[in-house]
Amino acid sequence: MTHSQRNGLFMGLPLLLVALAGCAPSAVEVVQVIEQPLVVEEAPSPAAEPVEEVAFEVDRFDVDLGRFDGGKMWTFDNPPVEWFAEEYGIDADSAWFAKARLGALRLSSGCSASFVSDQGLILTNHHCARESVVDVSRDGESLLEEGFLAGTGADERKVPELYVEQLWAITDVTSRVHSASRIVRGDTERVQARRNKASAIEEELGEAAAVRDSTLRVEVVELYSGERYAAYTYRRYEDVRLVMAPEEQIGYFGGESDNFTFPRYALDVAFLRAYDRDGNPAVTPNHFAWSTEGASVGDAVFLVGNPGSTSRLGSVSQLNFERDYVLPQQVAALERRAELLRPFAGSAGSDTADALNNMWFNTSNTLKSFSGKLAGLRNDTLIARRSAAEYQVRDDLFKSDSLSGRYGSLFQQLDELQLSKRAEAGRMAGFTFFGTTLGSRILLRALYGYYYANLQRRGFVDQEIIADVRKEALALDDLPAEVDESLIRLRLQEIQEALGAQDPTMRSLLGDLTIDSLAADIVANTSLTDSAGFAELLDEGFLGSDDATVRVIGALAPLYFTIQQQMESFQNREDLLVAELAALRFALYGTDVPPDASSSLRISDGRVDGYMYNGTRAPAFTTFYGLYDHFHAYRDISREWDLPERWRNPAGAFELSTPLSMVSTNDLAAGNSGSPLLNQNLEVVGLVYDGNIESLSNEYVYSDRAARAISVDVRAILESLRHIYRADRLVQEVLAEPDVL
Fold this sequence. Notes:
This protein is of the alpha+beta class and 741 residues long. The protein contains 26 helices and 23 strands.
């Protein structure tokens, strides 16, 4: 789980917060450089007992605890060899898992992907590549609307600043990280000691790996809430080019209305290519072959990707706080922004229009996701199930004198911490999503300017971080003045509602002005409407200027920092307690339960299967027949179901009965978009692009009753490439036919 998701009320500027905290890695002893494609140094762990299904009555509910309530997002550190043999009858040995790991990729944009040829060809989602499509569009082009296909290798367009990473090696570093926190006292100091140690190990191993191969990078990954740490060594490909992307109208067919739903009919696919440093297509022998037969109902399928976060191993009191405060505040903030942006969304053809569309897409997508999670937490059965699981842990805890002596007061401490957080939650609400791109660009630039000036004033020694802050600040896109003014007005209203009209900060900020007039004055008298004016102010000294935003951010930023500091204090305490809880669970159950998702590579098993919903049954597969049915039935209602011109009258050879989308029981989370769905021979049968609405509550408890992963069927991709796009070069490459480049 990332910091912003744990914290819940703020999401933004993590680099700046680290910089202002003055975190710097310390020197550590040299360790041996990894020499093999995969090395896992396993720390001793308690023998794991099978998790049996038991029943408890909690809050008047009879709850069955399932074997996989904690999910199936298995790490490659501890692959479920025995379970795969038991359930699917496959011999998933170390070579099988190595192939699954080395074919998978992580995009720097936050999505997953995979190699699908030996010439660096990459498969991912259209919605994962949408910003890349915009970035490579030239003057007069609207590739997001029109689609893109490179006829030859020379036509493939380099995407600025996009890179992909392949997990090359894993090393357990738990004991080294934990050693740092044993010699300090205080919650903040212990958390910071672990962070510093992890950063130092990351830097040390990264430098050593780079000496051997300059494409290698190292990231220290926290597992089981800090009970385990692993150094993941990635091979990075920094030259990534766009090869093919369909029109957005087919890539996002059904739009926001169909988001997180099934049946679905979107061709959410895109192809990229990795190039080496000499400018040639990368040689990638570790890639996934393509299954032309696809999958059938009941088939075992395996999802390999990088899920962002889940919250399955914390306490019930934490879930209650998220249900009562965090998610309601986030959903309310997103609803207000979605309503504000809705009239401006839908236009295309300019950088500003694309920025608005992306902002609308991100806001509406996040809103639907968070609303689904909130609905799940408000379901009494979910809380009862987690309560029963917690009761099981408490019961097992007090069967052991040694464990009860160490962890006996743990749950009480977690409960008391949530009470402290509740006391501050109202004040924090006004800054929900503060410092993110889900708000005014003018205020966000002002916040960057405030940070940048303070870093310089404090004589911050790490000039690289200062340069990164400047680069991030100047990379922000622009919004129309009327949109920005509306977003500023909304933010000021939210802060006033949270703090009260008589709050000294708000009274000082407004004076004799109203919120409406202050917002209008800011927009009329600022140079932060675009990056050019902002760059000049940064160079001249932002805080010393007479820009209209200086007084506003000078009042809001210190308040934000004070609240953030309080939240950080709570979070540091909670991190330590949750780490203790993870250590307790680990002592009781070992690796039978996988760790919560952490944007690191996982493999999830499942089967292709439909499910019951709305009094009927969703099929396991949809076809192109359904696509055209929706086009004719709904296109007059909304443009979301319209089709690009080339799709309206397909060639006679185009087979409408081809499976288009499919659902499976694989465990997934945000970040799995673009993950390959593989059969037991590790051939691609699908491309994961979403979960259904029923899967959103799997954030807290995994269930496969109705929750499903949604994938584009490979047969639909092939049929479209052949008969709609005439992309013979791509078809030949994914089918491993010679002479394709």
